[in-house]
Design goal:
Elements (H helix, E strand, L loop, with lengths): L1 E8 L2 E3 L5 E2 L3 H18 L2 H4 L3 E6 L4 E6 L5
C-alpha cells in the first residue's frame, strides 16, 4: 500500500506528493517515530505549535495523525 505523509496546520498544508510504499501500518508507526523526533528537534516549539503529521492513503483516508508539539 502507498501512504502519504502530509504536514498540516490549520489551513496550511505541505503535501507529500510521492508517498511511500509500505507493507503495514505497524511498520510505518515504528519508522516515523525517529522522523518525528528529528522534526521536533529541528524546530522550536513555537514554530511547530499546531502542526501535525497526517498519514493517509491515496484516497485521502487518514490512518493516523501525530501532533508535532512534542515536549513544550
Amino acid at each position: 500500500m502507498r501512504l502519504y505523509f502530509h504536514l498540516i496546520s490549520g489551513t496550511d498544508v505541505i503535501f507529500d506528493k510521492d508517498g511511500l510504499e509500505v507493507t503495514s501500518l505497524d511498520d510505518v508507526r515504528e519508522t516515523i517515530t525517529a522522523d518525528i523526533e528529528e522534526l521536533i528537534g529541528e524546530f522550536p516549539a513555537d514554530q511547530r505549535r499546531g502542526w501535525r503529521l497526517e498519514v493517509t492513503d491515496e484516497s485521502g483516508t487518514v490512518y493516523f495523525s501525530v501532533p508535532l508539539n512534542g515536549p513544550e
